[in-house]
Amino acid sequence: MTEVESGDELRFATGMSELDRVLGGGAVKGSLVLLGGAPGIGKSTLMLQICQQMCKTCKILYVSGEESARQIKLRAERLNVSGDNLYLLAETDLDRVQEAVHQLQPDVLIVDSIQTLYSGEQTTSPGSVGQVKECTMTLMQLAKGEGLTVFVIGHINKEGSIAGPKVLEHMVDCVLYFEGEQQMSYRILRAAKNRFGATNEIGVFEMQDGGLIEVPNPSEALLEGRPVNAPGSCVTCVMEGARPVLAEVQALVVPSNFGNPRRTSNGFDYNRAMLVLAVLEKRGGLLLGNCDAYINVIGGLSLDEPAADLALMIALASSFRDKPVPGDLVAVGEVGLTGELRSVNCLGQRLSEVRRLGFTKCIVPSRSSGKLIVPEGLELIRVDNIRQALAAIV
Ligand code: TYD
Ligand code: MG
């Protein structure tokens, strides 16, 4: 080890500060970054847009197996991307890509997408586990060998993993996920893995006619349209895999007109929602038996984590009592059957996300495991059970 020279890794700015932030302060020379996301979310757009700035200082080779050079050019024109240092190659054969890299000696290689690339050494079809693995390995060697920064686009399937397999995550230096609702314009970039930086930073973009625009204040963007001072709304923070995500839970509680109260839940696990309702009635003392309850999670998120219980309970109580929840408050905690609040995992990570998105108060179970670092500017309201929580908030 004493013989190895270290020094800081060499970084350069991509020209998109939200992307640089997620990468841990810019792209690292000789690294491979995997950019995953659902089809149509804007991966190609993001990659093409960062070329605009990067090609002022770097030579870039943009390899596409999905679009022809002409199509890329048309898209680039629409995005106002141009430059002499930007080379396009419409190719799916890995050997030819390698040849082009050796011939051109670019500083940055962009591959769109890993699922279209194939290696002659594998007999399976492009996009199969073997191919995707083999191609990524070769690109990784290219990156390390040539000191080249490689960005690889990967489509994720319904289960949310790149190319079905999680096989790529352990191989590459950095895994970014580009997420968002197709019908909504906001896009979130998260790092699921980063060998050169922290993974708890997020970048927010907005998809507009002229391409992706950076959103400097994501707290407003993510919870956009959140009603101010309206009863029945509460924000929580859930972990999506390794990633904390803020979500707004809404509840509407109204007197029931029929014998059987109606309960619906959209985005919140139905059985958990019924459990929270029952605990709220029995342990919280709210007479919900003659009320309809409608539950909805904003933004199309699906919450299946017990840590969202407390927010749902507060939203329900807030609607029942017609009393709004403070707008700068987030609730995190699991509700037990006796009305006790149970600790949740990764509380530190959640709190930093809560603070990062501009909230100043967080109500949490008082028994939290481990040592907790509370971010500056965040006030913790610690409660033992739901009665204390209701007394403190609604
Ligand atoms: P794209 O980058 O092609 O997605 P991906 O590579 O992740 O599959 O983005 C496609 C969508 O983005 C498409 O539905 C249209 C939209 N879009 C805009 O709204 N504005 C633009 O300037 C561009 C280029 C795309
Ligand atoms: Mg694409």
Give descriptors for this structure:
binds magnesium ion, 394 residues, elongated, alpha/beta, 7-stranded mixed β-sheet, 27% strand, 9-stranded mixed β-sheet, binds thymidine-5'-diphosphate, 20 strands
What is the topology?
Layout (H helix, E strand, L loop, with lengths): L10 E2 L4 H7 L3 E2 L3 E6 L5 H12 L5 E5 L4 H10 L7 E5 L3 H11 L3 E5 L16 H18 L2 E7 L18 E6 L6 E9 L7 E7 L2 E4 L3 H5 L10 E8 L2 E13 L7 E4 L3 H13 L8 E7 L11 H13 L7 E3 L2 E2 L5 E2 L4 H10 L4 E5 L13 E5 L2 H8 L1
Parallel strand pairs: 3-7, 3-8, 4-5, 4-6, 6-7, 12-16, 14-15, 16-19, 19-20
Antiparallel strand pairs: 1-2, 8-9, 9-10, 10-11, 12-13, 13-15, 17-18
Helix pairs in contact: 7-8, 8-10
Assembly classification: single chain
**How many strand elements?**
20
Listing every helix as H and every strand as E from the N terminus to the C terminus, the arrangement reads EHEEHEHEHEHEEEEEHEEEHEHEEEHEEH
Gyration radius, rounded: 24 Å
Uncertain residue ranges: none
Beta fraction: 25-35%
Shape: elongated
Which small molecules are bound? thymidine-5'-diphosphate, magnesium ion
Largest sheet: 9 strands, mixed
Helix content: 25-40%
Terminal residue distance: 59 Å
Mean pLDDT: 89
Counted by DSSP, the helix tally is: 10
Give the strand line-up of the largest sheet.
Answer: 5-4-6-7-3-8-9-10-11
Briefly note the structural class of the backbone. alpha/beta
Quick synopsis:
The strands form four sheets. Strands 5-4-6-7-3-8-9-10-11 form a nine-stranded mixed sheet, sandwiched between helices. It contains ten helices and 20 strands.
Polypeptide structure, described:
With 394 residues, the protein is α/β, with parallel strands linked by helices. 27% of the residues lie in helices and 27% in strands. The strands form four sheets. A nine-stranded mixed beta sheet has the order 5-4-6-7-3-8-9-10-11, with helices on both faces. Strands 14-15-13-12-16-19-20 form a seven-stranded mixed beta sheet. β9 (186-194) and β10 (202-208) form a beta hairpin. α7 packs across α8 and α8 (309-321) packs across α10 (386-393). The radius of gyration is 24 Å and the shape is elongated. It binds thymidine-5'-diphosphate and magnesium ion. Thymidine-5'-diphosphate (TYD) binds next to α2 and α3.
